[in-house]
Amino acid sequence: MAKNLVKDFMSSPVMSVDSEETIREAADFMMKKKVRALLVKEDKEYVGIVTKTDFILKVFVNENMDPELDIVSDIMSTPVFLLDSSATMEDARKFMQKNKIGHLAVTEKGKIAGLLSKNDLAAYFGKLV
After folding, report:
1. CB-count burial class (<10 Å; 0-12, 13-18, 19+) for 38
2. pLDDT tens across 38-50, in order?
3. Which of 88, 97, 104, 114 would be 12's cystine partner, CB 3.0–4.6 Å?
4. Domain range holding 30?
């Protein structure tokens, strides 16, 4: 059987940041871990996602934001879009396109197990050409 399931292309383990951390702390963590997105946690629940694009569009372009003082929950996107790990990459492409998102959380047995990005999709579909 061809390996075209989301679980074969997702990034795992999930990197996350607390919703009360400063934007600077989250950006530093992303750079250190070399990731383009972090799930945002409040207590033990994922409540949002923050991406490289959020930093560019909501912080860098917005002169009213102070990365040293403002917190991640000020710039995160909600809700966290979920897709089961048994979905196909084509299912993921359609889902992301329909919802106009660049990242989604991948679930296994109802729990978030990884992230899938549009870059993961591009790599997968690029190999098919």
Report:
1. buried
2. 999 999 899 999 9
3. 114
4. 6-128
